[in-house]
Amino acid sequence: MKTISKLALIAAFATGTSGLALSAPAFAKDKKTDAAPAMKLSPEVQKPGIAAQTALTAKDYAGAQTAIDQIDAAAKTDYEKYIGAALRYQLENEKLVAAQTANPNAPMNETTLAKPLDALIANPATPAADRGRYAYRRGALAFNGKQYPIALQYFAKAKELGYNDPNLPLQIIKAKMDSGDVAGATADLDASIAQMTASGQKAPEEYYRYAVAKSYAAKRNADTMAWLKKWITAYPTAKNWRDVLILSGIQANALIPLDEAQKVDVFRLMRATNALADQTDYLQYADSVNRRGLPSEAQAVIKEGLAQGKIPASNTMAKGLLADANKNIANDGPLSGLEKRAAAAPNGKLAAGTADAYLGQNNYAKSIELYRLALTKGGVDADDVNLHMGIALARSGDKAGAATAFSAVKASPKADVAGLWTTWLGAPAV
After folding, report:
1. Distance CA 323, CA 337 (A)
2. Could you give the CA distance from residue 334 to residue 313 in angstroms, rounded to a whole number?
3. Would you call the peptide bond into 413 cis, given omega within 30 degrees of 0 as the criterion?
4. pLDDT-derived band of residue 106, with 50, 70 and 90 as boundaries?
5. Under a CB-based contact definition with an 8 Å cutoff, are residues 290 and 324 in contact?
6. Is the pTM of this model over 0.70?
């Protein structure tokens, strides 16, 4: 039988709603004199009721159908109508199971369950404890038929009736999402995650992936970015960091539109999170910084990729980049001379450029000193300097100082990049 599935990345979640078996009341052959009046059955209902149960036990579905039709025709009280609806639901459910067993690949027509379920939900004689699960099953039926507003109506009814299956909140989220209410569904999902966290549980990673995929598909970029940050904070693996950073700023249709210089700062975060995956990542990063006059960083990136086996030793582009970076380093000479010139310069541009060079050498103390000098002298892009100083502070281990520097980056897209670095500060180590 088709089921409602749980939340998952782009597709749906893993588990679902199954048909709910019904235990119909037994039909005694002699009347109980102490039975409550509302629970009594007339002979016109009792006799076909026994026949229906006998037929169902024997899997004589045609015989059961005839007997249940007789019950419906004779039923006068709510209880008698409840008996008829309960038996009809049992009959239709068993017929579906039998059909699926006989031909597992055949499409299932669950619509025959709708009428008895509606009758059971509406009937005041239906035991209160059962009405909620019937409403849930009816919601599942509507969901499987892509009738999402109807599914939501019945899921809400199940919740109102006190049905507390742990899957119910997820089914509501899924129905909202598939009905097009992405904002409402992700808000509910966020609340579910918060509730799980408060109770000491960790939400499955699929919840985050699902929210990212659906928000991205709906072109809700701000929400997508927010969910990416939540996901990477909860599950900070190197692979996940790479996925987040590629989607955020590296790929052609990234969430944050970045120029090449700004992408370098995302590559730096990929390096910090061990998320540079292959030779393409290393070579693109090294080529970008080398062309921007940062040969020491290019050299370090190429050597790192070779040492980790991510770049084959025979790679022609890597050999060329490394040779070019070595040549530029020799031509530039030591940075100490630039420091002196930067201190005497009328503005902070040379200090910022020299700080970038020290950042590429992993000399964070010197780069931080010169970034601060650049801000003091002025004449520089303050967002750019604060972003790079934040990176240097973060890599040096000064998380508080880094957070302050990143918070000083005001304009997009650099502020968005600073936000990714800030997320890294708060996430567990990869």
Report:
1. 24
2. 29
3. yes
4. confident
5. yes
6. yes
Per-residue model confidence as pLDDT tens digits over 63-105: 999 999 999 999 999 999 999 999 999 999 999 999 999 999 8
Measured between alpha carbons, how far is residue 280 from residues 94, 292, 301 in Å?
A: 57, 18, 12
List CB contacts of 371: < 8 A, sequence separation 6 or more.
Answer: 351, 352, 355, 385, 386, 388, 389, 392
Residue 153 Cα to chain centre, angstroms: 24
For 332, the token pair is: 């530039």
Q: Which of 56, 60, 58 is nearest to 89 (CA)?
A: 56
The gap between the terminal CA atoms of the chain, to the nearest Å, is: 42
Of 193, 221, 220, 196, nearest to 208 by C-alpha is 193
pLDDT digits (tens, 9 = 90+) for 418-427: 999 999 999 9
Radius of gyration of the chain (CA): 33
How far is residue 111's CA from residue 91's CA, in Å, rounded to a whole number? 13
CA distance 19 to 17: 7
Handedness of CA 139, 181, 251, 395 (dihedral sign): negative
Element (H, E) at 197: helix 182-198
How does DSSP assign 17-59, residue by residue?
A: --PPP--PPP--SS--TTS-GGG---HHHHHHHHHHHHHHHTT
Residue 327 CA to residue 307 CA, distance in Å, equals: 21
